[in-house]
Amino acid sequence: MRYSELLLPTLKENPAEAEVVSHRLLLRAGFIRKLTSGVYSYLPLGLAAIRRVENIVREEMNRAGAQELLLPMVQPAELWRESGRWAKYGPELLRFSDRHQRESCLGPTHEEVITDLVRMNVHSYRDLPLNLYQVQTKFRDEIRPRFGLMRGREFIMKDGYSFDADEAGAEITYKKMYDAYQRIFKRCGLKFRAVEADTGSIGGSFSHEFMVLADTGEDTIVACRGCDYAANLEKAAGTEPEKDDVALLELEKVATPGKKKVDDVCSFLGITPENLVKTMIYIADDAPVAVLVRGDHEVQEVKLANLTGAVDVRLATDDEINAHTGVPAGFLGPVDLNVPLYADREVMAMANFVVGGGAADIHLKNVNPGRDFTPEAVADLRTVTVADRCPRCGAEFDFVRGIEVGHIFKLGTSYSDAMKARFLDRDGREQVFVMGCYGIGVSRIVAAAIEQNHDDDGMIFPLPLAPFKVALLNLALKDEEVTAACEKLYDDLEAAGIEVLYDDRNERPGIKFKDADLIGLPYRLVLGKKFPESGGIEVRTRRGESFSLPYDGAVKIIAERIAGELAATMAD
RNA sequence: CGGGGCGUAGCGCAGCCUGGUUAGCGCGCCUGCCUUGGGAGCAGGAGGUCGGAGGUUCGAAUCCUCUCGCCCCGACCA
């Protein structure tokens, strides 16, 4: 492509609306423009980068036995009522009525549509397993869209859905998708990690998130230094605590006037937070529950939600605490508490600890579980800390930041049950499909790639995702010899199948260098006024390597290097 | 939805507090000259319902009310 003919409006200054680096660079480099909040137009280079991702995704999905189709974006409300999500999904689902007052919505995801399609057309175990996917624009009316392509309301997603005859088949399909995802992100040239994840509101039994590692990521990943265990912060667990065998001391009431905070109580009583248990009141779907965790630990609300089965879990306000327990906040304790009590498993391993006394200005010392109180349930209910160790191998954890770009779920039969999607098995019996779903944020990957790979001058595209592999700069446009050499080089590169952006604009060298850096193509070839004398092409990679090549044979060498780098991303 | 902030040329901003005659600056854009290895220089030029509506006033970008849009901080998710 000739730069002179390309719509590539680069910006010298940072747009005020862009906070994060990928958003800033995508705007500055002329990849995207905002239409309205969370909705972007993809300009030619932005689209080219997206196409690179899509193609890798398609190749690997097809290789894994999935078939591409394209489902409608507008979906009827009936389907969502059938699955129960019309009521459950909330305002993120953009709803509207058509001219006949038929209720409809824009698809934020396509479980209903695909389940409907399959139940209407697949009736036999002989047609299973079936794995279908699409690459499509999704719309979710996000509460707060932000960070450009990172969290738009409209975004491009690959979503896939599998249908198996039984659990065992679904497990195999899940594993296949897991492997395909590993290949996809490797081929994108990104540093990433698959982590165990909470299944969240989509439901299901098992789930992995694929995270692109970047300091600016919104999610925290807990990764083991010793083995390949990794999980997101909501899911991560440490080792099972071991109970010390110590003599139980006698329960003792102590006055702690005005000491509400953990730190205040500890310094007042001369203990450390490890010897104190705090009692937190949460509102789980309108019902109060109490949670016990060690003084220096934090309740993980997602774990609590899973234990209680509640959709919404939040910390109670001081007024709510008082109303439900009759105890002022700060002095709550598990002894004689009148709301359902859950304990983090760590608490059960502790002995002779301090808790709130169940009345103002009183705490209890030498409290012991089993003797002084008995929780309704014990579970891992807290967020892991740096002090925790890997549950698999006992090694230390690293906490790193990541951007979620893929998520795979074993769905089970929740949708097929709700929507009566059934087939006949070998014995002629009706069975429901066992489903899985598999998402990849295609447009988000482009943002994540930039977030992970950039410097002060601009983007640094991983080769497989670069909209062009090579930038060819003609710095002496009026020199006929140089221009002729550039033109030929441009043609030869294209003929060799290398996408090249030929900067043939009548601009000063500085502008061409700056734009090339900003766009971040992997290879930059420069021909200037020195060329007729030297006969050499100056090559510089966007990561800083530079060398020169003789004009003749340069295309072959570049082509080989590129082929070699691409092959490396494909290797197992 | 709660909290904070911003809407003035394609982009970045000043002007507003303390109302006043033609609304400014930098970048970008157009023309010409000149220049050509890291966002040059000179000269000329185009481009604005000051987000919108209403009000106060002799007079509103500026003050008041309402409204729309956008951005940032918290609860969702690819």
Short structural description:
This protein has 572 residues and is an alpha+beta fold.
CATH topology of the largest domain: BirA Bifunctional Protein, domain 2
Gyration radius, in Å: 29 Å
Gross CATH architecture of the largest domain = 2-Layer Sandwich
Instruction: Give the integer mean of the pLDDT values.
Output: 92
Strand composition percent: 25-35%
Descriptive terms for the model:
572 residues; alpha+beta; BirA Bifunctional Protein, domain 2; YbaK protein; Rossmann fold; 3 domains; nine-stranded mixed beta sheet; five-stranded mixed beta sheet; 16 helices; 28% strand; RNA-binding
Describe the 3D structure:
The protein folds into three domains: 43-237 and 398-451, Bira Bifunctional Protein, Domain 2 (BirA Bifunctional Protein, domain 2, 2-Layer Sandwich), CATH 3.30.930; 252-379, YbaK/aminoacyl-tRNA synthetase-associated domain (YbaK protein); 468-570, 3-Layer(aba) Sandwich (Rossmann fold). It is built from 16 helices and 31 strands. The longest helix is centred in the first third of the chain and has 21 residues, at 167-187. By secondary structure, the protein is of the alpha+beta class. Helices cover 28% and strands 28% of the residues. Strands 3, 7, 8, 9, 10, 11, 12, 21 and 24 form a nine-stranded mixed sheet that branches. The chain binds one RNA strand of 78 nucleotides through residues 9, 11-19, 34, 36-37, 90, 92, 108-109, 138, 140, 142-144, 146, 151, 155-159, 200-201, 209-210, 312, 314, 404-407, 439-445, 473, 475-478, 507-515, 517, 526, 528-530, 538.
